[in-house]
Amino acid sequence: MAGHSHSANIAHRKGTVDAKRGKLFSKLCRAIFVAARNGGGDPDMNLKLRYAIDKARSYSCPKDNIERSIKKGIGELDAENYEEITYEGYGPGGVAIMCEALTDNRNRTAGELRKLFEVCGGNLGATGCVSYLFTYKGLFVIEAKTVAEDRLMEVVLEAGADDLQRVDDYFEVTCDPKVFDTVRKALEDHKIATESAETSYIPSNSIDLDVENGKRMLKLRDSLDESDDIQNVYANDNIPEAAMA
């Protein structure tokens, strides 16, 4: 593995799903709740809700959990009051990191994150300190063995995708979020299975880490995944294979 690509992130995350399934379902349902609260409970009219539901389904989140979260979001059931916050900072070796959070206590979350960053050799920064290094895109990850590159390129470019890259054993397709549904439908129509399909912050560059900082970065990622409040983590790290091992 050349580095910590988007496909590597997905493999790393999926590899720990079973051990953390309850926590993961809680995060997925929290995202559904907030999307429904902000945009209504109809996924056909609320794209953010549709994406949140699709993501929950991709991890086999129970249907009852999804429906209960929607009902909480539209006020049919009692629910906590969460707010969306994006925290930014620097990880080991100067890696740029963005953390999307849903929290009912921003002071508690900020304090916990500051400690996690410091323990792993990084520091929490001010709003805007690294966000300029990322672009919000639609991202599709496809196993390379399932489709020929020429065929995939023809399908996604015709649907409006921006780019297609081969990363190790995966293809990574990016697009403007406005055509995310168009690209996804094109892949579905051509029966091309995706390992992951989501909107994501894509870094404009990457930082190559040595083994020691690579290990610290993996520890920080795992610690952030453990946090109940953190929904998504984006970083421009490139972690060497020795650290992964």
TrEMBL record:
Pfam families named among the record's database cross-references: TACO1_YebC_N (PF20772), Transcrip_reg (PF01709)
Alphabetized UniProt keyword annotations: Cytoplasm, DNA-binding, Transcription, Transcription regulation
GO molecular function: DNA binding
Location of the protein in the cell: Cytoplasm
InterPro entries: Integrase-like_N, TACO1_YebC-like_2nd/3rd_dom, TACO1_YebC_N, Transcrip_reg_TACO1-like, Transcrip_reg_TACO1-like_dom3, YebC-like
Gene Ontology CC entries for this record: cytosol
Domain spans labelled TACO1/YebC-like second and third: 82-236
Primary localisation category: cytoplasm
Any GO BP: regulation of DNA-templated transcription
Domain TACO1/YebC-like N-terminal, first and last residues per copy: 5-76
Family of the protein in this entry: Belongs to the TACO1 family.
NCBIfam families referenced in this protein's UniProt entry, alphabetically: PRK00110.1, PRK12378.1, YebC/PmpR family DNA-binding transcriptional regulator
The protein's name in its UniProt record: Probable transcriptional regulatory protein Sinac_5499
Organism (species): Singulisphaera acidiphila (strain ATCC BAA-1392 / DSM 18658 / VKM B-2454 / MOB10)
